[in-house]
Amino acid sequence: MGKCIAYLAAAVVFTGLGALVAGLAVWFTVPEVAQKFTSESRKAQCVLESPAAVSGTIMFVQSSERAPVDITGNITGLSQGKHGFHIHAFGVSGADCKAAQGHYNPFGSNHSAPNATERHVGDLGNIVAGEDSVAYVEILDHSVTLFGWYSVLGRAVVVHAGEDDLGLGGDSGSLATGNAGGRVACCTIFAVID
Ligand SMILES: *[C@@H]1O[C@H](CO)[C@@H](O)[C@H](O)[C@H]1NC(C)=O
Ligand SMILES: *[C@@H]1O[C@H](CO)[C@@H](O)[C@H](O)[C@H]1NC(C)=O
Ligand SMILES: *[C@@H]1O[C@H](CO)[C@@H](O)[C@H](O)[C@H]1NC(C)=O
Ligand SMILES: [Cu+2]
Ligand SMILES: [Zn+2]
């Protein structure tokens, strides 16, 4: 009886080892599986179009799938002060910023601040334009990604006329859009050579 259990245990262990070896073999030889774990870096660009006179180019750089995204660029032609700065759900053609629809929100969260634990993926807060009408954008974000199912590639950056209240406005608009007002510029984020 004891011998029987020992044989059974040995069989289970060997089957387990076999499955492990087979799994590792697939991991290292099937490209679609292995690819998920490479440390490829990605870069993307967005060239603002505007129904007003706002312009600028925004760069996105992510050194690997797990790394935060560096979002940088200088935006000119803005009124002095804060302007809501978001990634919206869809790409746009030209300055038809309405086509971008709402904030990119794949997890059904309320609108909030970039440093909030629960926020829209697209919630990048405000950018600030100085007296020179220029906003120097320099954001390091851990929610936005250029990889995988929730990649922002093909979606739109939207710059607003007014300030984003970061979800603190106390009304339903605040929890949806931050009451940031009209859309003064937008563009579609596309991948570029790294
Ligand atoms: C943005 O402006 C800063 C400060 O003038 C400058 O150093 C930087 O090169 C500019 N970046 C781009 C992408 O034009
Ligand atoms: C959004 O905020 C409202 C009001 O505070 C709350 O009732 C609701 O549960 C929140 N929704 C989510 C998804 O957190
Ligand atoms: C987010 O940043 C603001 C101002 O920069 C700060 O007042 C607030 O406490 C921060 N919130 C979290 C959750 O870190
Ligand atoms: Cu927006
Ligand atoms: Zn939002």
Q: How is the secondary structure organized here?
A:
Layout: H1 2-29, H2 31-34, E1 42-47, E2 55-62, E3 69-76, E4 81-88, E5 123-129, E6 135-141, E7 156-160, H3 172-176, E8 183-188, E9 190-192
Antiparallel strand pairs: 1-2, 1-9, 2-3, 3-6, 4-5, 4-7, 7-8
The chain binds 2-acetamido-2-deoxy-beta-D-glucopyranose (NAG) (3 copies), copper (II) ion (CU) and zinc ion (ZN).
Q: How are helices and strands ordered from N to C?
A: HHEEEEEEEHEE
> What CATH architecture label of the largest domain applies?
Sandwich
CATH superfamily of the largest domain: Superoxide dismutase, copper/zinc binding domain
The kinds of small molecule bound in this structure are:
2-acetamido-2-deoxy-beta-D-glucopyranose, copper (II) ion, zinc ion
| Number of domains as seen in the coordinates | 2
Major β-sheet, in short? 5 strands, antiparallel
Helix tally equals 3
Basic shape: elongated
Q: Which fold name is given in CATH as the topology of the largest domain?
A: Immunoglobulin-like
Q: Which class do the helix and strand fractions yield? A: alpha+beta
Mean pLDDT: 90
Oligomer: single chain
Strand order of the largest sheet: 6-3-2-1-9
Indicate the radius of gyration in whole angstroms: 23 Å
Percent helix among the residues?
A: 10-25%
Query: What distance separates the N and C termini?
Result: 64 Å
Class of the largest domain in CATH? Answer: Mainly Beta
Estimated share of beta-strand residues: 25-35%
Query: Residue ranges: pLDDT <50 for 5 or more in a row?
Result: none
How many strand units?
9
